[in-house]
Amino acid sequence: MIVARLTTALVAGLIFGLGLVISGMSNPAKVIGFLNLAGDWDPTLLLVMGGALVVTIPGFQLLKKRARPLFAERFEFPTRKDLDPRLMVGAALFGLGWGIAGFCPGPAIAALATARLDVALFVGAMIAGGVVHRIIFSPRSPDA
Amino acid sequence: MENFTPVTGLIGGLLIGLAATLLLAGSGRIAGISGIAGGLLARVPGDNAWRFLFLLGLVLGAGIYQLLTAGPLEVDIDVSWPLLITAGFLVGFGTRLGGGCTSGHGVCGIARLSARSIVATLIFIGVAMATTFVLRQLL
User: Fold this and answer.
1) Has residue A118 been placed in a domain?
2) What is this structure's pTM?
3) Which of A61, B36, B89, B123 would you call most buried, defined as having the most Cβ atoms within 10 angstroms of its Cβ?
4) Is residue A30 within 8 angstroms of chain B, CB to CB?
């Protein structure tokens, strides 16, 4: 079961990465084209999100009804429901960084395939941000 | 809207949705990139290999695309290195504090109809749009 679980992770990551680059989201200029409403607006990101949700909304609802996943003991769904300040401040800080560079975590990591120094610098700074968060708020904050 | 690429955008989006559904169906995990990467920093025994393999898959997927299209991926960054590094730090810190990014909140959280994720997504898209406006239209 461990082999099936690890294979699932690798294959899912690979399909996810392909989706990011095919959609153009691995290019910060494309993302900025969406975020810059006052510029030559490019709504592509909406279709990327829409295309993903068309699959995940029915897919997740169907999976929620199952007792357990195929290769693991249980579903690891986030359990928190409260709208706390950390959620909102964190989302705002992320939005600030995303708006500056046009990179969010998935596209930035996928773009490491270019072996470019500027991409590596962004990812390195991202990891540093995660480390600093961990130092301040250890042990860990709950996921989405 | 001359840069609008609806067909490749939709195909890419469907693949992202398929990948997130596959990870949940097989491993029971949410495909949130910042959460998967952030979990590596926690170094919980037995919880690292799948995270590493998923992230490796992201890079491999992009690498395969580069091989098929016989060229480097288009990555156009229009800010200076100091700004780029600042942005990276904010993205890393903010996504951990807020418990997710575009994939975890935006794709998976909305699919679970999570109020937290819907609020977070509205905030980070709103702030990113405002930031872009200030940086690229006003300054």
Assistant:
1) yes
2) 0.96
3) B36
4) yes
Residues 73-132 of A with CB under 8 A from B: 73-78, 80-83, 86-106, 108-114, 116, 118-119, 121-132
Query: End-to-end alpha-carbon separation of chain B, Å?
Result: 23
ipTM passes above 0.95: yes
Is A40 an 8 Å CB contact of chain B?
A: yes
Domain ranges of chain B: 77-139
Residue A142, domain member (yes or no): no
Distance CA A37, CA B52 (A): 36
Angstrom distance (rounded) from CA A113 to CA B64: 9
Dihedral, CA of residue A19, residue B28, residue B36 and residue B98, to nearest 10 = 100
Number of domains in chain A: 1
- Nearest CA of chain B to the CA of A136: how many Å? 10
Q: Mind listing the pLDDT tens digit for each residue in B74-114?
A: 999 999 999 999 999 999 999 999 999 999 999 999 999 99
Tokens of A47: 């279709």
Phi and psi dihedrals of B74, rounded to 5?
-75, 115
